[in-house]
Write a structure and sequence with these properties.
Blueprint (H helix, E strand, L loop, with lengths): L2 H10 L5 E5 L4 H16 L7 E8 L6 H15 L3 E5 L8 H16 L4 E4 L4 H14 L3 H4 L5 E4 L2 E4 L7 H10 L16 H16 L3 H30 L5 E3 L8 H14 L7 H12 L8 E4 L2 E6 L2 E5 L9 E3 L4 E3 L6 E6 L3 E6 L2 E6 L5 E4 L5 E2 L8 E2 H8 L3 H4 L4 E4 L2 E5 L3 E2 L5
Parallel strand pairs: 1-2, 1-4, 2-3, 4-6
Antiparallel strand pairs: 5-6, 7-10, 8-9, 9-10, 11-16, 12-13, 13-14, 14-15, 16-19, 17-18, 19-20, 20-21
């Protein structure tokens, strides 16, 4: 089956109302763009659907601006609307991981309801993904590699070229006289994927002509076995994961190590995270799950942090230290740091009403300056019939995880703490 016929068949099997094509300007995505342009011509009803492209400018190459121009010219030629999105890459966990995270988060902002993200991953990419998972020591979930249809970062994704080799894409591109860019970083073998692509896999393909197809079959077997395990564990998993980013640890210690790791992999997959290695999972279980009861353990996994509080794991982003922040309230709306949103105030005859997220608190008016802080230690009176208590005890009573306590806006009138918005008020002892 040729490329266009296969794309057409896949299109007929999808209920999507639109397509957003991830366009780098390289060979693979240029072929993909051309195929969708041809499909639109062949299917008279397709123009009523949304067919768009998006190019991510990572700012990592001196040629990045010329790549933008190339993609603009290409989309103008095919009459497909193009979105250009510039991103900042967080290199903390490596350029490859940071670029991937930034790319998909940027795409997610533009993906519309009933629209599917289309990527140009092909059979050779599948082999590389399988080997990278193998290198990490990943389990079945990771070795399942990429599927033609999946969900990533909460987005539906279709990979229509996954059954075709790069050679087949090159043949199509030459036949159609397509022009594409070449990313100079693809030759840098310091990156694991490039090392596999340039040094290792060509030798394997030279010896075994159908090596990529064999890897794809192995990846599919791994995926199917993982699906079977998931089916068998679904009932237990539902008991542990009632909220997507939380995993309850009740009875967890009674399971075998094999069942423990399988359930944790299911949880990470549910949250669209890359599968960790066996060593990482063992470290997570030993250092976080079974840490001492009074410990505050955490484990970084790419761009997320797994934390434990009492008998529950929480998946969060890394947080900034806000304990030194002091913000003076001078307007009716105050922008809070570290993506905490806005604090707003409404005023009536006698009171000020403070709103933050889904919380609010009503306080008496004051002539003192109003400050917002995020860290406090000491005793406060948060109940009219109880003495002053250490704020740590109050947070514990309220079931607020340790890392969240310094992310809740504290309202001060001058130097006097008046409220933790949405959690408690401080009572006047006079």
């Amino acid at each position: 089956m040729d490329l266009l016929s296969d794309i057409e068949k896949q299109f007929k099997q999808t209920s999507a109302q639109g397509f957003l094509i991830a366009l780098s300007g390289g060979l693979d995505s240029t072929v993909l763009l051309s195929l969708f342009a041809k499909l639109r011509q062949k299917q008279p009803h397709l123009p009523t659907l949304s067919v768009r492209a998006i190019h991510i400018h990572h700012g990592l190459s001196p040629n990045a601006d010329s790549w933008v121009q190339h993609c603009q010219d290409l989309c103008a030629q095919f009459q497909i609307p193009l979105i250009i999105e510039r991103v900042q890459v967080d290199k903390t966990n490596g350029i490859e991981a940071g670029a991937r995270e930034a790319r998909y988060q940027a795409i997610k902002k533009h993906l519309q309801t009933q629209e599917v993200l289309i990527t140009a991953h092909h059979l050779n990419d599948q082999t590389e993904t399988f080997f990278l998972a193998l290198k990490r020591g990943s389990g079945l979930q990771g070795l399942g590699a990429m599927q033609q249809r999946s969900v990533l970062f909460g987005m539906p994704i279709l990979r229509p070229l996954l059954g075709f080799t790069r050679t087949q894409l090159e043949d199509y591109a030459q036949k159609e006289k397509l022009n594409w860019i070449t990313d100079e970083s693809n030759e840098d073998n310091r990156y694991d994927r490039n090392f596999l692509r340039n040094e290792i896999l060509p030798k394997l393909r030279e010896r075994w002509a159908h090596f990529d197809l064999a890897v794809q079959r192995s990846a599919q077997h791994c995926f199917e076995q993982q699906q079977l395990i998931n089916d068998l564990l679904n009932e237990a998993f539902a008991e542990h994961c009632k909220i997507k980013n939380q995993f309850k640890l009740l009875q967890f210690h009674q399971y075998s190590p094999t069942k423990q790791t399988a359930l944790l992999r299911m949880w990470l997959a549910e949250n669209q995270l890359e599968m960790p290695s066996k060593r990482q999972l063992t470290q997570l279980i030993n250092d976080v799950v079974f840490a001492k009861e009074d410990a505050i353990p955490q484990f970084q996994l790419v761009s997320k942090v797994i934390r434990r509080y009492q008998d529950c794991l929480y998946l969060t982003k890394p947080f900034s230290d806000l304990t030194k922040y002091t913000l003076k309230l001078e307007k009716n709306t105050l922008s809070l740091p570290d993506d905490l949103g806005n604090l707003t105030i409404q005023e009536n005859e006698n009171n000020l009403i403070f709103y933050w997220q889904d919380y609010s608190v009503t306080l008496e008016k004051t002539d003192s300056p109003i400050f917002i802080r995020f860290g406090y230690s000491g005793k406060v009176k948060h109940h009219s019939k109880r003495p002053r208590e250490d704020i740590k005890k109050i947070w514990q009573e309220l079931g607020v995880p340790v890392w969240e306590r310094n992310r809740i806006p504290l309202i001060f009138y001058g130097d006097e703490l008046k409220s933790a918005v949405g959690f408690f008020r401080v009572f006047d002892e006079s």
